[in-house]
Design goal:
The protein is of the alpha+beta class. It has 2 domains: about 30 residues; about 90 residues, Beta Barrel (OB fold (Dihydrolipoamide Acetyltransferase, E2P)), CATH 2.40.50. The chain contains 1 helix and 6 strands, in the order H-E-E-E-E-E-E.
């Protein structure tokens, strides 16, 4: 009887330790860097779109106003503004001049776009 209680206690302690370590690793804050870009869309590639507007994912190459090209990731939930209105990704194309707000998470290779503002000439 006593051996069974000790086994249960050891098992519970082990489970609690694993959960504590797992929650500690999951709760580790990520370093996020905000990055502004401005320039012409060189290429845009849409890999997948959801059933609702704004749920597309893909990538974009932006020829920066100052500097070279930058590769940006398009994730679902990205917003696109044109003349103060929210528009869909269908209205973007190569040659559009845009201002982009992106974030770069430490775990990702490329910055993720959070907002694109299409600038009119």
């Amino acid at each position: 009887m006593r051996r069974g209680m000790v086994s249960v206690a050891v098992l519970l302690c082990s489970i609690l330790m694993v959960d504590w370590v797992w929650l500690g690793a999951a709760g580790t804050p990520q370093e996020v860097v905000a990055l502004p870009f401005e320039g012409y869309i060189k290429t845009i590639k849409i890999d997948l779109c959801g059933l609702q507007p704004g749920m597309c994912q893909g990538s974009m190459v932006l020829q920066q106003k100052e500097g070279g090209e930058v590769f940006l990731v398009i994730r679902p939930g990205m917003r696109i503004k044109h003349r103060g209105q929210i528009v869909t990704i269908d209205e973007l194309g190569a040659g559009n001049y845009v201002k982009v707000e992106a974030i770069h998470l430490a775990k990702d290779a490329a910055p993720q776009i959070i907002l694109i503002e299409v600038m009119t000439p």
